[in-house]
Amino acid sequence: MKFTLKDYQDEAVKDVFINLKKAQKRWREDGDKHAFSLTATTGAGKTVMAAAVFEALFFGDDDYDFEPDPGAVVIWFSDDPSLNEQSRFRLMEAADKLTISDLLNVGNTFSREKFEAGKIYFLNTQKLSKKSLLVRGHDTDDNALETVEGQKIMPDMRSHTIWDTIQNTIEDPDLTLYLVLDEAHRGIRDRVDVEKMKAINLPHFKLKLRDVSRELYLEHGWQMPRGLVNSIERNPLNFTQAEWQQAKRIKQDPRMIKQTFQDCWAISDSKAAFASALEERGYYLAKGDRRGFVAVDWRGEVYAISRWVGVKAKDVKAKLGNPDELSSVEKTRQELAGKFTDKFQQFVDETISSHDKAEQLLKKKCQTLASRNRQERAQLEQMQKNRRQQETLARSSQLPTGLKALWFRVTGKYRAIKNENEANAAQCKTRDQSERQKLIDQQLRQRRQLQHEIRLLRHQHGIRVKKLNRDIGSYLKLSPGHQIDAFNRETIENTDRRRRKRRSRDFT
């Protein structure tokens, strides 16, 4: 593991291993299935605990006295593909022995007779729908193709459906299938009508989970976030996953984008004022295909006003009125593309290229640091393993054998030596844990320093992009096709003149 588990995480992992041992015994001796749950509040590190369990399941763990299962196969199942990607990334972050080749996403092209031992397969409910390529079989009445052995071929030329793969894995005596239901509190089973194979709506489950979170904070005496105490006090710059993904596509900070839209909304009292405020920052108001009001930037990216401002659609309509007078998204894109010269595009490309180069250097630095840290942990682990073996042999040699052992047992010396050895073993274990923690703390300091550089780079890039957006907005406003009356032109010139005079006084 790359991280040291906290006390409550360590206790939870021990409970999981106890349940796993029971499950293995019941399955191998009686063929009975076994189920248990790991429940913790949001942010408690359930994925980190799962990483510790998976490493022990595949490779064993002396600290938890858990033997590896050479035939272990894990299916990580959830009802959201993005949640699977998030869990997969966190497992790679936390686990030291699991590689990217051990964490496999089951895509539509997946077709195997059995799952491979020592792997974690990520699967979600959407891939098990009737029309999914993973579950499509053949109709017995169809004239399906057959192989030389007489095996049926699926319509998409597959040899096995996902159900066949799961069934073959379960029936293989050399393999053991472990199923992990992620976010099981959402009630995957309760939300499915088994007879009709339809999803059952589960209303207000997020509100109920919010109440549970509040109770947990109060029960443990934790400091509750202000937004959880009162939803009115939540951070207005918080963003959803969709907003984060959109900002990631254009390599910007979603907080800065949201701040820009909210500032424009706050200083505007009409549609014209709001459109003007947006134009000054490089965004242009347009009529959306589905939503009434949207904004288009110089890249052609579309932003829903209600989502990025953080207000309801009816409030947007009440303030801005009818969107039918605005240009469509496609027309706005064409107008912006017509005003964008090659020279200005070159400036934009240089800004983005400069950030990309700096980001690539930091990524290489991250990879180098991660590789060096992984090597240091492996060396420490190997050194401790060798030392532990030598110390175990040394302690064993202190115990007498034969008649001498019998005499030592009678006199009580055997028990004294054994107690001394146990105390020494406990001290050695504490020493090893201290060495590992010292190395981890050292590596965490290095990572924090590197993370500070990454955040600084992103912050500087965000400021540059914000300034670039303003420059582009000013440029497009002055370019042909934009009407600027004499009053506005004179106002701009006077503002520039006053700014130059103020700068000259500052320097003198």
The pLDDT mean sits at 79
Secondary-structure element sequence? Answer: HHEHEEHEEEHHHHHEEEHHHHHHH
- The total tally of domains equals 3
Give the end-to-end Cα distance, rounded to a whole number of Å: 60 Å
CATH architecture field of the largest domain: 3-Layer(aba) Sandwich
Can you tell me the CATH topology of the largest domain? Answer: Rossmann fold
CATH class of the largest domain: Alpha Beta
What coarse outline follows from CA principal-axis ratios? elongated
Helicity level: 55-70%
How does the helix and strand content classify structurally? alpha/beta
Task: Evaluate the radius of gyration.
Answer: 31 Å
Q: Report the sheet-strand fraction.
A: 5-15%
Counted by DSSP, the helix tally is 16
Low-pLDDT regions: 138-148, 481-493
Q: In what order do the strands lie side by side in the largest sheet? A: 2-3-1-4
> Describe the biggest sheet?
4 strands, parallel
Question: Can you count the beta strands?
Answer: 9
